[in-house]
Specification:
Length: 196
Amino acid sequence: MILKGLFRPLRYMLKMIDKSEQVIVIAAMERELPPGFGAVATGFGRAKTKKTLEGVIADKKPSLVISVGLVGAVIPELKVGDIFIPEKIVDYDKPEREYIVQYPIKKSGVLVTVPRVFHKKDKINLKKRIPAAAAVDMETAAVAEVLSSRKIPLLCIKAVSDDLEFDLHNHKLLRAGIDTAIKSYTEYLTRFLHIR
C-alpha cells in the first residue's frame, strides 16, 4: 500500500469539522457504495454525476463530501486494492481545468477523469499527454467542479480496481479487482470515520 501513517493528519482534518455538520459519502454505482454509511450513488459518468450531486447538495446541504470509488492505475507502483487519495484532479477533456484537493493529509498523486474505460494502451498514451497522471476514473472531475463552485470541501478515498498490467477483458479478474477495491476503501472509510 502506498499510503502509510495517514490517520494522524486525518484526525486533524476531522477536528476541523463540527460533528453536527452534514457529511455525505458518494460513489458512482450502487455496487460501489460502502454499506452502513447512508451513501448516495451518483450515476456512471460525468453528466449523471453532476445532476445527481446537485440534487443531493440542494437537499442535504453538506459541509463535506467524501467521494469513494474505483480508480485504474496509470503508474506501476499502484496495485489492486491500494488506497488512492488524489492531490489534484484533472479533467482529461480539459487538462487546463484542474482541481487542487486541499486537506492536510499525505496524497497519492494526480487523478485524471477520463471519458471512457481506459485500457493499458490508453493509460500509456495518457502519460504522454498528462505526465503527472497516477490514476484514472470517470466521475471525480465532475464532482470537484460542482463542489468547487459551491465552496464545499471534497475528500476522495479511492481504491485501485485495475493496475497498469490488468486485462480488462478478463471479466472474472475484473470482478475480483472491483471486489478487492471496494473492500479496501470500505475498511479505510470505516477507520477514517471512526476517528471522528
